Amino acid sequence: MLKNYKIHFNMISLLLFLFIMLPNFIWFAVPAPDDILRIESATPMIDTLASISQVLMIAALCILTNREHKKQGLTPWMIGVLILCLLYYISWGIYYAGKTNTPVILGLTIPPCLAFMLHAIDRKNIIAVIPCVIFTLCHVIFAAVNFII
Questions:
Q1: What is the pLDDT of residues 11-53, one digit of tens each?
Q2: Cα 3 to Cα 126: distance, rounded to the nearest angstrom
Q3: Are 100 and 8 in contact (CB under 8 A)?
């Protein structure tokens, strides 16, 4: 399986990561009204695993390329990525409007994870899918335990 991969920087993956992280950078600098996301987490071990898997996922997406992948284009997978990013940005907008209910929290949690997943699938980068699944599970557990349950 590893013989199908080569080390090659993927600018699209880096841009996707930065695009998804942009609302987080804004949130760090400008807190939202009723900002419930700034609580102390009840899941520190899960958070650590999420951070590690996120770094591995982004590294795999940005550095490893499957030789069997065709040129980047507007595939159905990438259209899905764009729709998920739109949902994510809408969720941030609703959050900054002062809504902090379960659908908003899930909108801040699930769409970015699935966007990375679809991007990895589009790139045929199964190596990146593995930490992406772990990151998604940890991110959902974090959201559920800290904000939903």
A1: 999 999 999 999 999 999 999 988 999 999 999 999 999 999 9
A2: 13
A3: no
Q: Is 7:67 a contact under the CB 8 Å cutoff?
A: no
Task: Give residues with Cβ within 8 angstroms of 41, minimum separation 6.
Answer: 47, 142, 146
CA-CA distance, 141 to 143, in Å (whole number)?
Answer: 5
pLDDT band at 93 (very low <50, low <70, confident <90, very high): very high
Q: DSSP string spanning the chain?
A: -GGGEEE---HHHHHHHHHHHHHHHHHHHSPPTT-GGGSPPS-HHHHHHHHHHHHHHHHHHHHEEETTPPPP---HHHHHHHHHHHHHHHHHHHHHTT--SHHHHHHHHHHHHHHHHHHHHHTT-HHHHHHHHHHHHHHHHHHIIIII-
Please state the pTM of the whole predicted model: 0.93
**How much is the pLDDT for 73?**
74
